[in-house]
Amino acid sequence: MSKKLRVAIVGCGGIANQKHMPSIKANADKAEMVAFCDTVLERAEKAAKEYGTEDAKVYTNYQEMLDKSGDMIDVVHVCTPNVAHCPITVAAFEARKHVMCEKPMAHNTEDAQKKKLFYKIFRESYGCSPREFRIAARKRV
């Protein structure tokens, strides 16, 4: 069997709890959550305990998570408020991670163009819906 996708969740609140983390957990044969990041430490810890692997890491700063993760993370799910989508996605691309970003793609046109540019530079996978994540997971295994 091929290895599982190793997922990091950035933003462990509403949409992550309602959709992303339960969907990934339901596909445990294809993916596992290995890192959780939220500005509220307790929220990230709770998510890690409920959904993460036994050795899942917890962070309050997404850049620190990306800097320390090395090859531990394959894909980053960006589940933060809209205004934070662009900087987190760009940082994940720079760290050579695939990205699944909650909609909208960006807070404004300038951010959308920046994300498109970084996607073209780094050529990592980018998706904007849980459906696209499931398709990527099927292709990987």
Mind explaining what this structure looks like?
- This protein has 141 residues and is an alpha/beta fold.
- Helices cover 48% and strands 22% of the residues.
- The chain has helices at residues 14-26, 41-51, 62-69, 85-94, 109-122, 130-140, and strands spanning 5-10, 31-37, 52-59, 75-78, 98-101, 126-127.
- A 6-stranded parallel beta sheet has the order 3-2-1-4-5-6, sandwiched between helices.
- Strand 4, helix 4 (85-94) and strand 5 (98-101) form a beta-alpha-beta unit.
- Helix 4 runs parallel beside helix 5.
- The longest helix is centred in the last third of the chain and has 14 residues, at 109-122.
- The radius of gyration is 14 Å and the shape is globular.
- The termini are close together.
- The relative contact order is 0.18.
- Residues 130-141 have low confidence and may be disordered.
What percentage of residues falls in helices of 4 or more residues?
40-55%
Q: Which range does the strand content fall in?
A: 15-25%
Order of helices and strands: EHEHEHEHEHEH
Q: Tell me the number of helical segments per DSSP (H or I, 4 or more residues long).
A: 6
Q: Mind telling me the C-alpha Rg?
A: 14 Å
The parts where pLDDT drops under 50 for at least 5 residues are 130-141
Outline the biggest β-sheet: 6 strands, parallel
Give the spatial strand order of the biggest sheet: 3-2-1-4-5-6
Q: What shape does the CA trace take?
A: globular
Broad structural category: alpha/beta
Distance between the termini: 7 Å
State the oligomer: single chain
pLDDT averaged residue by residue: 85
| DSSP strand tally | 6
